[in-house]
Amino acid sequence: MSQESARPAPPRGRRSTGLWVLIVIILIPPVVVPLWVPLYDKADPTLWGFPFFYWFQFLLIICAAIITIIAYLLSVVADRKDRADRRADRTEAER
Amino acid sequence: MNGVAVAVLVFLFLLVTVMGFAAARWRRADLTSLDEWGLGGRGFGSFIAWFLIGGDLYTAYTFIAVPATMYAGSAVGFFAVPYTIVIYPLIFLFLPRLWSVSHRHSYVTPADFVEGRYGSRSLGLAVAVTGILATMPYIALQLVGIQVVLQVAGFGGSNGFVKDLPLIIAFVVLAAYTYSSGLRAPAVIAFVKDALIYIVIIVAVIYLPHKIGGWDHVFSAVKTSFDSFNKDNAGAIANKQASGKALFTPPVAQWAYMSLALGSALALFMYPHSITGVLSTKNRGVIRRNAALLPAYSFLLGLIALLGFVAVAAGVKVDNPQQSVPQLFENEFPSWFAGVGYAAIAIGALVPAAIMSIAAANLFTRNIYRAYFRPDATPGEEATVSKLVSLVVKLGALIFVLALSKSFAINLQLLGGVWILQTFPAIVVGLYTRWFHRWAVLLGWAAGMVYGTWVAYDQASPAQSHFGSPLAKFPFTDTLVYIAATAFIINVLVAIVLTVILRALKVTDGVDETSPDDYAADIGDESVEPEVDPHGVAHA
User: Fold this and answer.
1) Mean of per-residue pLDDT scores for chain B
2) Quick one: which of A59, B56, B96, B265 is 20 to 30 A from A89 by CA?
């Protein structure tokens, strides 16, 4: 493993912090709602013959996937900002 | 024996065997290094990773066991769905950090990370041993999955050895191509496995209910069947000699449902084979993108679970609930398609079994052999040891299933889930903070392991006197909760209290060889080089 001697200093006041907070916040419901069993542990209303207990959990899979896709897209933007900041820090350090 | 179905099964098995051996030439590289043999060169993109990780996590045993619990009348088995929903937001957040630090420090196993982060070889050993112990019975259960299919397909001869011969051949062939191709073999076979599974399940959930009379008929037939069972066995249920059947989670079991889902979700990515899949990806984005795309498998798993109900509605009668879905295929599908269904399950066992044996072998090589016996082992030597150990691990699993009772493997797999969750504080908390003292983490792990093992041993069910259930009463209450979750809480409490005490006593803590920016490093940063093709494009 190669260790370089001068690592860039930790970035000051990163511009991406707000985005990362937003990502964490939107990822909370996909973790909490499926674990909140009393919310969906019942038969009615049924959909296409499926009791609520079953179709609601299938619906949750789709919703969670959509939210995670949004989180992924946000993370791409946040990563790009982090990368630009790190590059700026590095050029500053070299000067 | 169903001749056409068996012919289809054998043909598809031969096809993946050829692919498994040919995989050594795919993305050609020097397979005498552990990074290449054991992590596929750390170069898999989103597409391959989706098949590989999906093929790895959703195993044949899952496809047999989940509908089996539904068939047997326990709607709690459907917890597999929330479990596989909750997991992806969690891995979205923490796995990229593990990927980054592992790339910067060339870690191959989760135990490598723990050893480096806490500066403690013994903590690394604890994580490695837990991983190996939890993985072995899991491999054995993949064999159980193949066995179930072979029985339904009609291989169940009278002579003991002849009966087991197909299983032995399948496993020897698997061992041979895993030995020669490493992680590339399951990565290639995963394409076939997943394609087959998707085709079979989509056909099954559209064709079968249509044939039987629609989903509302399926649910009402299941309700009638369960109600009459409960009425006929009311006395036995009251005496706890039998378990009642239900279409929903009874209110008293809601905590059980929730804790099983959460506990299993937290545990899944502590399994060495899941981490092997993750570390084989080529950048952080691959992991995040997959967290958003892998739920497709969760949907599939939910549908497979419901096949247990379809089997009830279709009047499938089997003594072993694990045979319900293969038997459903046998009864309702044309022979050739039943063969495709068997192949989907059997090949579904090969992919995870290969990855698990590679992961267990890597743990042994890195955290036992290199850490304690040969600190200056070369990458070539590591690869040789891993290859041999992967054979030993598979042989062990085979003997396990053939010589010992099947329920022993199932009990141990239950324990494996309890055990592996106890490595969570060392690994995941370690990804965020070094606040925990190394000895506190080790003792917390030990407390969780002892408590979990003891309580799991203590659970009786109508069928067996020990290891009867993954659930136990939460201390000081009557609420049934997943044992792993309770053990995990005890583990964390012990780690917190001891950290405070050890810090107050100023006991020496280990040296952390990682630095904060290691956890955000990505391909293109210094010392995070793409390893498969240094001249290629780093970004996809």
Assistant:
1) 81
2) B96
Q: Is residue B264 part of a domain?
A: yes
d(CA B475, CA B469): 16
B299: nearest Cα among A49, A12, A59? A59
| CA–CA min distance A79, chain B (Å) | 9
- Using CB atoms, pick whichever of B78, B85, B92 lies closest to residue A60: B85
Which chain A residue is nearest to residue B256, measuring alpha carbons?
A37
Would you call A43 helix, strand, or coil by DSSP? coil
Chain B residues near residue A24 by CB distance under 8 angstroms: 93
Q: Please report residues of A whose CB lies closer than 8 A to that of B526.
A: 4
Residues A18-22: what's their mean pLDDT?
85
Q: Which of B266, B328, B165, B332 lies closest to B489, judged by CA? A: B266
Nearest to A35 among B86, B92, B217 (CB): B86
**Residue B252 buriedness (CB in 10 A; 0-12 / 13-18 / 19+):** exposed
* Tokens representing residue B431 in the block: 């990804």
No. of helices (H) and no. of strands (E), chain A: 2, 0
The CA distance from B52 to B352, in Å, is 9
**Tokens 């010589």 belong to residue:** B403
pLDDT tens readout for residues B458-503 = 877 777 777 767 777 777 777 788 888 899 999 999 999 988 898 8
The string of pLDDT tens digits covering residues A23-50 is: 889 888 888 888 888 888 777 787 887 8
Q: Among A2, A41, A68, whose Cβ lies nearest the Cβ of B291?
A: A68
Question: Does any domain span residue B349?
Answer: yes
CA angle B293, A38, B410 (to 5 degrees): 65
- Asked if residue B528 belongs to a domain, the reply is no
In three-state form (DSSP H/G/I as H, E/B as E, the rest C), the secondary structure along B479-506 is CEEEHHHHHHHHHHHHHHHHHHHHHHCC
Q: Which residues contact B455 (CB under 8 A, 6 or more apart)?
A: B472, B483, B486, B487
**ipTM above 0.85 for this complex:** no
> Is residue B511 assigned to a domain?
no
Cβ contacts from A onto B, under 8 A: 131
Domain residue spans of chain A: 17-80
Mean pLDDT of B505-509: 81
CB-CB neighbors (< 8 A) of B88 in chain A: 30, 64-65, 68
To the nearest 10 degrees (0 to 180), the angle between helices B379-403 and B121-153 is 50
The pLDDT-based confidence of B241 (bands split at 50, 70, 90) is low
> Which chain A residues touch B289 with a CB distance below 8 Å?
72
Contact B494, B449 (CB under 8 A): no
Q: How many domains are there within chain B?
A: 1
Inter-chain residue contact B522 with A83, CB threshold 8 Å:
yes
Q: In a 10 Å sphere around its CB, with 0-12 CB exposed, 13-18 middle and 19+ buried, how is residue B261 labelled?
A: buried
Encoded tokens for B46: 């989103």
Structural domain span for residue B391? 3-23+45-406
Categorize the per-residue pLDDT at A8 as very low, low, confident or very high, splitting at 50, 70 and 90. very low
Alpha carbon distance B262, B267 (integer Å): 9
Distance from CA of B15 to the nearest CA of A (A): 33
Q: Which CATH number characterizes residue B49's domain?
A: 1.20.1730.10
Q: Strands of A1-95 (E only): list them.
A: none
User: Nearest CA to B507 among B454, B430, B436, B458?
Assistant: B436
What's the rounded Cα separation, in Å, for the pair B22 and B390? Answer: 19
